[in-house]
Amino acid sequence: MEGTAVGAGGLDAVPALEIDPILDDRGTRIIVCCGSGGVGKTTTAAALGVRAAERGRRVVVLTIDPARRLAQSMGIDALDNTPRKVDGIKGSDGGELHAMMLDMKRTFDEIVEAHADPARARAILENPFYQSLSAGFAGTQEYMAMEKLGQLRARDEWDLIIVDTPPSRSALDFLDAPKRLGSFLDGKFIKLLMAPAKVGGRAGMKFLNVGMSMMSGTLGKLLGGQFLGDVQTFVAAMDTMFGGFRTRADATYRLLQAPGTAFLVVAAPERDALREAAYFVERLAAEGMPLAGLVLNRVHGSGAAGLSAERARAAAENLEEGRMGDRGPGKTGLRGVPATSSEPSHHATAADSSARPSAARPSAAPEAAPTADVTEEHGTDPDTDQDLARLTAGLLRLHAERMRVLAREQRTRDRFTALHPEVAVTEVAALPGDVHDLAGLRAIGERLSSPRGGS
Prior knowledge:
The chain is built from 18 helices and eight strands. The chain has helices at 19-24, 41-53, 68-73, 104-115, 118-125, 128-136, 140-155, 173-185, 188-199, 201-223, 225-238, 242-257, 271-287, 309-325, 346-358, 369-377, 382-419, 438-449, and strands at residues 30-34, 58-63, 84-85, 96-101, 160-164, 261-267, 291-299, 425-429. It has an eight-stranded mixed sheet with strand order 3-4-2-5-1-6-7-8, sandwiched between helices. The chain is elongated and about 90 Å long. The model is unreliable at 1-9, 197-223 and 324-377 (pLDDT under 50).
């Protein structure tokens, strides 16, 4: 949602992403958090769920293989394929939060059980090829995430569904998977295997014998006879269901294009993550899907940004060089022996005049002790000074490195905003540790919804 410009530099040219109006809009029924893996999508989705529930929405968050700590942060020992209510939500107006984790095999099994008679369903579920397909076929997780989204939306039990997309190599896999799986099921190989069953009768048996002998000579060598037989049995059992996969995938795709859906692209301020984000933004535009904006997550900041990296490094070098010089005889006066100077002060002259008579008296030696005590009391010991200088130089170098990181992140961000000035952006500051409870998720929600993203 567009608002006023935020931040400085490249953010001046783009609108601010305002989260709360999206969450409060009852017309928004689905929020999809997408992006490449490892950018904080799951935590973002959970934080949005907590915030929306505490603002009065009935929310279900569909997470994809979240870390155990995230389930525990919502007070749930384990998440599974069934939505479970999250306790401790401080909502009003009936706000509730449910959470679940996608079990792609169980979701595939549910589809089979719902669209096949018991005998055929049992044959499919026990088929070795189906078991491999449902457990790890490329794109199955993404496809089943969309299947589960369609199921949740059809139940109409929640007024907001928040989807954490799978941690794919590419953010585009979520949109491509239904088409890819549909193409596999509609492909020439599957149609060839289905052909004997469709012909039927003696002609079918003749075709089957000819076809199987041909495939046994080629595919059988490549795939193995047992595997090929499992595939043929699977295809025969699934014949009536193939069209349903394509139909449901198309229906969910249209649901994602509907006005009630909002895509949030989540990215870290890193080159690869923002490149993926740019690809996804362009794909959403090409598919006519509603993009709400970009959440730039884990952005680093500094409370002393006025001190540049160059100045911090220079100051560190000066301290280090000065510390090395302190080891010379010029500082020995700090232990009670007067320091030499080309232009002695009045105090130095007085010290010299009082020192000369005492040199002739043996009893004068103890009088030097108070001078040393006073020196130590006021912290002018050279070892202490050197330790302080070393510590300060180290802190200055850490600050210089932090400012270097900030500059790199801003350049990377500015390249994205220059290419996509129409995309609303919010920045979320990096946290010092992991989120481990509802309070942590609330803090993330506050940062997401603050005018400047909490950065």
